[in-house]
Amino acid sequence: LLGQILDHWFESEPLKATLATDAVIGAMASPHTAGSGYVLLHHVMGELEGRRGAWGYVAGGMGALSQAIAHAATARGAHIFAEKAVCHVLLGRDGEAQGVVLQDGTEVRSKLVLSNASPQITFLELIPQEQLPKDFVQHIRQVDTRSPVTKINVAVDRLPNFLAAPNTRNGQPLPHHQCSIHLNCEGIQLLHQAFTEATHGHPSSRPMIELCIPSALDPGLAPLGCHVVSLFTQYTPSVLAGGRSWDEQARNAYADTVFDCIEDYAPGFKASVIGRDILTPTDLERIFGLPGGNIFHGAMSLDQLYFARPAPSYSGYRSPVPGLYLCGSGAHPGGGVMGAAGRNAAQVAIKDFRHL
Description:
The protein is of the alpha+beta class.
């Protein structure tokens, strides 16, 4: 359990709770949930410029990372077709992947197909079910994809001013503005209570909030004096109590709760808001193809990791369909902006390609 690990190393409850957020981030789980300690490890296992466990902002926003990968690929002869949805994977007589068919009917032939989509989309929507083993299909259907995350992007006309560390008169970003700011994390029990409310279909009344201000480090993201604030919040159930869906009223009511909480820490925040974009679990699924809104394409629980990701006997990136590989967050070792699944899948695909 995460709580036992943190109790062993730390005494301060706010510090333990702040660290605990990385153990439940993106997970419909409490710090008291068995296996939550692994998710904390997952978030600090990498390194940035030689610093183990360090994180960083991408200059130009997260989209700049995608663009950098795209430019590297096109420089080596790759062709990228944006806004061209794949309808299904083309299969040969022996059930092997031979390319993809786009929604406009265009066929793209290939000896190998790598899917960065979730296992659910890849195997339940793009492949005829009769081409897959029944137990495999059943396992993919049963993957836990619950997500507690509602992401709120905010535009503000001034830098948030926190009571704990007031701004200077010139309004320039201070060190704490340039890192991750955790709110409603004074104690692990607060996180557990927020989780418990969501399990009953109610958005947390005092949600866990991870706030960052990327424009404090990258001024080009906002006009002079203004800032963009990214709020990673939980817990919000995909389906609300009574089977209600996330309509506009529910979205705004939850966002108002989040903003009221921030206001307690940084008075004047609500008055500084110019615009906000609210993405509930259902929005994250609809817009980005994340099953259940899960940023990891499936829970990072111990029963869905290592040799069992995405399914037992299929953790090596190959799938039941010869020539079709899974290279996204639903593959080993799971989600996160680290590229491990993609790199590993590419190595396997290259090895197989040499024998075609």
